[in-house]
C-alpha cells in the first residue's frame, strides 16, 4: 500500500496593516455576514469577511476634501409682497449682507410696474468650505392692483435656468463643471393677516410647486399673538391640502422610514412663522439678534419667540444637499424629459465624427 502524502500547506498572504494616518470609521468596525466566503466575490450580494484593513472608509474624507477645494452652488429665490422683510430674513439666515437690497438697492428705487427678476451672488466661506450663494429677488410681485398671472415671469425665469443647464449638458464639447444657476429653493412669504391665504398665494404655489422646491413662511410673525399664530398656521395647512399643493419636502420623495419621520415633523411645522433682524440687543447679559418692541425684545433665534432657528436648521443644516438633489433629479429631469420629448430627441451623432450634429435645442 502506497504511503499517503499530506497536502501541502501554503502560508496565508500577508495583509497590509491599517495606515496610522487614517482615522477609524465612526460607524464602528465592519461586521462580516455569516455567509461570507473570505474574500471571493461571487456576485451574490452577500457580505465577505475582510482579512484586514482596505481603506474603503476613506471615500468620505476624499469627497470632503474635493468639495472643500471646488466648493458648491446654492441658489435661493425669495417671493412675496414688498415690506414683508424678505431681504432682512435672507441676511439673517446667512449672517451676511447677501440680499439684493443690501448690495445694490437705493432708497429712491420705485416699485416696478411689472415683476422683475434681480439676483446677487456672493461667495461665503465657513470652516474651509466655500459656497457660491445666489439670491434671486422678485420685486413687483403682488404689489399691483391687478396681479393676474404675475407668477409667469418667475416661472419663465426658473425654466430658463433649466434650459441653460440642458444646453450645456447636451453640448458635445461640454464644460467639465457646468455652472449651476437653477433655483434650488423658493422661500414664499405669506402676509401675517391671521385670516387665510390670498388667491394669489394659492395660484402661485399651485403653478410653481411643480417646477421648484417651495418653502412657505409667515413673515413678521411677531405681529400675531401666539393663539393667532397657531390658528393661522393650521388654516394655511388645511388650505394647501384642500388645493392639492405639496410644498417641500414632498411625501412621495421620502426614501425610507427615517426620512419620513423627520420630514413629517417638518411638514407639521409648516408654514414657518419667522422673524428676521440684523440688529443685536443685550438680553440677560448676552448679545442676541432681535427686534425691539414696547414689550421687550423678540429674539430671532429663540424657538419660544419664533421658528427662525427651525427654518435655518431645516434649510441649511439638514436639507441643503437634498434641496439640490430634488432640484436635479426631480424638477430638472421632468423639464429635461419633456423638453427633449417635445423636441423629438437629440440628433444622432455620426460614427465617423465628421458629420457630428449638435442638438437643435
Automatic annotation (TrEMBL):
Organism this protein belongs to: Sinocyclocheilus anshuiensis
MF annotations from Gene Ontology: GTP binding
InterPro entries reported for this sequence: G_SEPTIN_dom, P-loop_NTPase, Septin, Septin3
PANTHER family: SEPTIN (PTHR18884)
Residue ranges occupied by any Septin-type G domain in the UniProt entry: 70-342
Alphabetical keyword list: Cytoplasm, GTP-binding, Nucleotide-binding
Family: Belongs to the TRAFAC class TrmE-Era-EngA-EngB-Septin-like GTPase superfamily. Septin GTPase family.
Listed Gly residues bias regions: 36-46
Compositionally biased spans, kind Polar residues: 349-361
Region of interest (Disordered), residue spans: 1-46, 341-361
Gene3D superfamilies according to UniProt: P-loop containing nucleotide triphosphate hydrolases
Main location: cytoplasm
GO cellular component terms listed in the entry, alphabetical order: cytoplasm
Name of the protein this chain belongs to: Septin
Localization per Swiss-Prot or TrEMBL: Cytoplasm
